[in-house]
Amino acid sequence: MNHRTSDWNENSGSHIKIAYTGLSFKNLVSSGLSNFNIAYNDSIAQLEEYLGDQSILTLPDIILIEVDAEGKCFALVKDLKKNFLLHGVIIVLLSAQNDKSLIKKALELRVHDFYSLPFSVDDLRERLNFLVTFKLIKPKLLELSKEVDTTYKMPFGKRLIDLAISGSMLFFLSPLYLIVAIAIKMDSKGPVFYKSKRVGTGYKVFDFYKFRSMRTDADQLLAKLSTENNQYATEGGATKAAFVKIKNDPRITKLGNFLRNSSLDELPQLFNILRGDMSVVGNRPLPVYEAEMLTSNEWSMRFLGPAGLTGLWQISKRGKEDMSERERKKLDNFYAQKYSIWLDLRIIIGTVPALFQKEKV
Q1: In terms of pTM, does the model score above 0.90?
Q2: CA-based Rg of the chain, rounded to a whole angstrom?
Q3: 221 pLDDT more than 70
Q4: What residue spans define the domains of the chain?
Q5: Which fold has domain 7-139?
Q6: Phi and psi at residue 15, in whole multiples of 5°?
Q7: What is the four-CA torsion angle of 35, 39, 40, 46, rounded to 10 degrees?
Q8: Cβ neighbour number for residue 95 with a 10 Å cutoff
C-alpha cells in the first residue's frame, strides 16, 4: 500500500534546515525533500567544515548522513554527540544496505532514525517533520552558558599558582600602581581605571579592569573605527570580523601608548585573577560584541578553557600585522584543548620578552 502524506506534511518544512552529506541519495533527497532548506555536502569533511562555520542561531535542525563503506559516518556521529553546541540537533542515517550490524551501531549511538533501501521518501519527509515539531532543537544561550560553566573546573594546582602570583605581585607592585594612577590623572581627564564587560570561560560575563589608556569617549568611537581601521577586518575582503584590533588607534592617549606598549595597563587584571574571574594563563576574555561572533561550532572551543592574563597569542604573534584572525582562533582552540601546568609555566616564561611590542595594534 502506498503511503499518502497529509497536507500538513506536504506544506511544511520550508523553515527546517537540513545539513546533508553524501552523493548516493542526493537526487532522491533533493526531489523528495524539496520543501526543506537543505545544505548539500559531498563528503564528511565538507560537512564538518560547514558545521564549523555555523553559530548557535544558524545551526541546522537535522543532519542527514549517508552511511559509507568505511564506516566514517559512525565516527562522525560520535564527534557530533560530544559537541555541546549540537545537543538537540536531529541525526538521521541513510544506508544503501539493509544490514543489521549497521542498524545496531546506529542504535548504540542513539541516532534519531536509520533508513535503508528500499525506503519511501514520503515516509522520511513525514518523519523529519515529526521529529522537528516535537523535539527541542536549539539550546538557548543561557542554557549553553550553564552547560559550559559546569563542564570546566579550574584545576587545584592552577588555581594555587594564580593566587600565589596575583597576591605577591599586587603586594610588591603597589608602589607602581600609585605612580601609574597619578600619571593617568595628570595626563588626561577621566577615571584611573577602565571597566568593561568581558566574556570568559563558559561565556561567563564579568567586570574586567585595566588602567585607562584611552579617551573617555573611546567606546562611542569604536563602531566607526572597527570597520575603517580594524586589523582583522580586511581578511578576504571582509568588512566584519570577530576580533577588533585598531591600527594606530586615535583613541589612545599619549601616556596610554606607553602603558599599552609596556603592558602596564593590564596590571589591574591581577584583581580579576585574585577573584577567580580569570587565570594568569589562558585565552583572553573577549568583549561581548566579539564573543557573540564566536559561538560557532568551530570556535566556541576557546571558551571551554580558562580565561587568562597572558597566553599563546601573546607570546607568539601579539602585535604582528601578519597575525590573521584564523591564526589567533587556532591558538585559542589549541590552548583550550592542551593546557597544563607545564604549558602554563612555558607561557609565563615566554611572556616577559613579549611584554614590549613594536607595532601599534
Answers
A1: no
A2: 25
A3: no
A4: 7-139, 144-354
A5: Rossmann fold (3.40.50)
A6: -90, -5
A7: -170
A8: 21
